[in-house]
Structure formats: C-alpha cells, structure tokens
C-alpha cells in the first residue's frame, strides 16, 4: 500500500468519531500547554529576580557581616568603608548603610507609623544607581556635621505633602525635626523593599540618634562597592577581602564578613527556583503521560471496534506492516494535533496568565519544540501497542467477528 493511502485511511478512521478523537487529544493538549505555561512561570520568576537584584546598582559588590555568629553583627564599621574607598583600586564609589528601627514620621498634619529609615553616606545615589528627582542628596560635609536633613522616597513625599513641594519643609522623625532637601526618583519594589516608602538620612545622625546604645562605634549593616567595570570585579573582591580581613585581624580563609556580587545572589535565587521548575516539569510530564494513556486506551477500543475492517483490508492484500503503520499514524496524528493545539494554548495562556496575574511569565523558546516533540513521542510510544495488536489479528478470525 502506498503511504498516501495509509495516511488517508488513518485520517478517515480519526474523523469517523470526531468527539472521541477530540477527547483523546485533550490529555495531550493539557500536558503540552502545562509544559509551556509552567516553564514560562519559572522563567518569568527568574527574570524578575535578576532584574530586581540588578536594580540595586551596576557592577555592585556587597560586603556584609556574617550573621548568626556571636559578635559578627558588629564586624563592619564606617571606617571599613572609608578604608575601602581610599585603598582599593578599580572602584568608582563606596556607600555604607545602616537600618535603624522604623519610626513615626509627621509632617503637614499627617502622621505615618512604622516608616522604614535608612542611614547612608553621601555617595548612595551614584553607587546604587538611584538618582534624586527633586532637590539634592546630602553631601559628605553635611553627613560629618550630623546635619538634620532628610531625603524622602517619592511615595512617602506624596503621602506627606500631596502635590505640594516638600523642599524646605520640616518633618519630624521620632522626636527629631529634619529639613527636607530632596526627593528620590521612583524606584518601586526591589527585592521586597519599597524604596519609595523610606526616608534617607545621613548615616552619622542615624548612628547617633536611632541605633541601640548597646552597639558601640560607627557600626554599619552593609557596605556597597561599585566597581568601575565588570572586568574589574574579581580584582576588587580580592582587594576588599584582603584589606578587610587585615583590618579585622582574621584569616582570609575564615573571614567574619561576606563579599558578594549581584550574580552570586542571582545564582542563589536561581537554585531555589530550579527546584520549583523541576516540580512544575514533573507535573507537566505526568499530564503528558496521562494524555498518552488516554490515546492508548482509545486506540485499543478502536482496534476492537474495527476488527472486521482490519480483516477485510488484510483479505484485500494489506500487509500486517500496513495495518500497524495505519494505526500508528492515527495515534501520532492525534498526538500531534493535540501538540499543536497545546502549543497555541500554552503560549496564549502564558501571555494571559502574565497579564492578568501578579506573577511575571516569560516564554521559553525551547519549551515549544520540547513540548511538541514530547507530544509526538507520546503518540508513538503509547500508539505502538494498539497498532501491534491490530497488525497481529488473524484475517479469518477478524472477518468472522460481528
């Protein structure tokens, strides 16, 4: 028999019962769509994490104390940041930060509780790629003099002053009054931190007025170092590690601080999302297997129902290989049609899920041929057994079957 005739006969067999054929492909459609959507959700989550972390600043190196070790929370001091700024080669800026407890902020007859505060050095906007939108940031002299000046996040400025300009206005943070000298540009949420809802103060006055008295000296929470380029990051990390270890009188192999880049943090986050992605892949794979079992079940029923047809074709000269190929092609066609519809549903569902939901989605190009290939493999694998049974039917016994 010609291959075109086998294809024509297989297509006829599928279209004889359209509803059953559709229900057979439904499992494959769901499986393929699940593969694409779930990989899109995983890729979207990874992309969002990377963007948020990279939003902290370009070529950023983060120096932090090792937490969870007795005394480690006090290992970084402001002098460490100053030493890095003076002695490390290949950097374009250093900023130290300290996070005191949240305070009540009052201004313009508005009182807001539990407002996050951040004490920083004057280089904060340039190091963290976070420019001032209105007014200016405080300078090093104002930080050293412990000037009572403040820069507001854009959202907080709106909450306190509405459409009125906050520049030169007075705000009370806790019990201390400050003069507003600037408003930061809009940044939104980055790594679960609302940058627009914070107040930015000179680190010297934060340490003096808002930090617990149990902490002695100019302790800082984090030191951010901006390398001049990606190529210099490795050298800068080596210098920072050696310098800080010497200052703290600890071994480089056993430091009381950590030095990380954005890529280190991204890699850590991706390791977490990888487990999530693997779980989603298993769920999608199970859906495809269920779809394949559905194809095998329906094909077995079809073989039973069409026994006389098979016997008649064999009596007219069809070889067992022709019968096997016909039923195998039927299974593959069902699977591929389900794959095509599943791909379209998966791509459309991913865009719809991303636009209507809160989670970001990103189509993984490789997922489309992967899902489609899996659908074809499912059709061949689960269609082979029913096709073999059809090919092995005895033509005489088949013709006798009512």
Describe the structure concisely for a colleague:
This protein has helices at residues 3-15, 18-54, 78-87, 124-127, 140-144, 154-161, 203-209, 233-248, 262-305, 307-315, 320-356, 367-391, 395-400; strands spanning 60-65, 91-98, 103-107, 110-115, 117-120, 132-135, 149-152, 170-173, 176-184, 189-190, 193-194, 199-202, 222-227, 257-261. The chain is α+β, with helices and mostly antiparallel strands.
Q: Would you mind describing this structure in some detail?
A:
The protein has 2 domains: about 5-50 and about 275-400, no CATH class; about 95-220, no CATH class. With about 400 residues, the chain is α+β, with helices and mostly antiparallel strands. It is elongated and about 105 Å long. The chain is built from 13 helices and 14 strands. The longest helix is centred in the last third of the chain and has 44 residues, at about 260-305. It starts with a helix and ends with a helix. Strands 1, 2, 3, 4, 5, 6, 7, 8, 9, 12, 13 and 14 form a 12-stranded mixed β-sheet that branches. The chain has a two-stranded antiparallel ribbon with strand order 10-11.
Q: What distance separates the N and C termini?
A: 26 Å
Average of per-residue pLDDT values: 80
**DSSP strand content:** 15-25%
Helix content: 40-55%
* Topology order in helix (H) and strand (E) letters: HHEHEEEEHEHEHEEEEEHEHEHHHHH
The count of strands amounts to 14
Low-confidence stretches: none
The total of helices stands at 13
């Amino acid at each position: 028999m010609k291959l075109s005739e086998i294809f024509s006969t297989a297509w006829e067999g599928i279209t004889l019962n359209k509803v059953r054929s559709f229900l057979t492909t439904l499992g494959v459609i769901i499986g393929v769509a699940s593969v694409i959507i779930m990989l899109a959700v995983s890729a979207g989550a990874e992309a969002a994490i990377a963007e948020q972390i990279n939003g902290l600043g370009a070529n950023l190196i983060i120096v932090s104390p090792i937490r969870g070790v007795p005394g480690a929370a006090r290992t970084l001091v402001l002098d460490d940041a100053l030493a890095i700024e003076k002695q490390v080669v290949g950097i374009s800026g250093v900023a130290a930060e300290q996070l005191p407890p949240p305070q009540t902020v009052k201004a313009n007859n508005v009182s807001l509780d539990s407002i996050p505060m951040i004490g920083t050095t004057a280089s904060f906007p340039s190091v963290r790629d976070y420019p001032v939108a209105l007014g200016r940031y405080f300078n090093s002299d104002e930080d050293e003099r412990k000037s009572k000046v403040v820069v507001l996040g854009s959202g907080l400025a709106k909450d306190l002053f509405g459409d009125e300009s906050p520049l030169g206005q007075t705000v009370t943070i806790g019990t201390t009054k400050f003069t507003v000298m600037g408003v930061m540009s809009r940044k939104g949420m980055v790594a679960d931190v609302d940058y627009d809802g914070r107040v930015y103060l000179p680190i010297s006055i934060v340490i003096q007025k808002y930090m617990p008295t149990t902490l002695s000296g100019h302790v800082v929470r984090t030191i951010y170092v901006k390398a001049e380029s990606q190529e210099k990051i490795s050298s800068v990390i080596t210098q920072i590690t050696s310098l800080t270890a010497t200052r703290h009188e600890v071994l480089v192999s056993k430091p009381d601080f950590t030095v990380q880049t954005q890529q280190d943090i991204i890699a850590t986050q991706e390791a977490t999302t990888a487990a999530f992605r693997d779980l989603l892949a298993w769920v999608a794979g199970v859906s495809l297997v269920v779809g394949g079992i559905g194809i095998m079940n329906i094909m077995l029923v079809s073989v039973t129902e069409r026994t006389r047809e098979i016997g008649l074709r064999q009596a007219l000269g069809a070889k067992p290989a022709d019968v096997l190929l016909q039923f195998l092609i039927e299974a593959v066609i069902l699977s591929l049609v389900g794959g095509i519809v599943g791909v379209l549903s998966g791509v459309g569902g991913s865009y719809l899920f991303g636009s209507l939901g809160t989670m970001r989605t990103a189509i993984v190009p490789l997922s489309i041929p992967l899902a489609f290939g899996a659908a074809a493999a499912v059709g061949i694998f689960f269609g082979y057994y029913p096709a073999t049974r059809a090919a092995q039917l005895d033509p005489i016994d088949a013709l006798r079957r009512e």
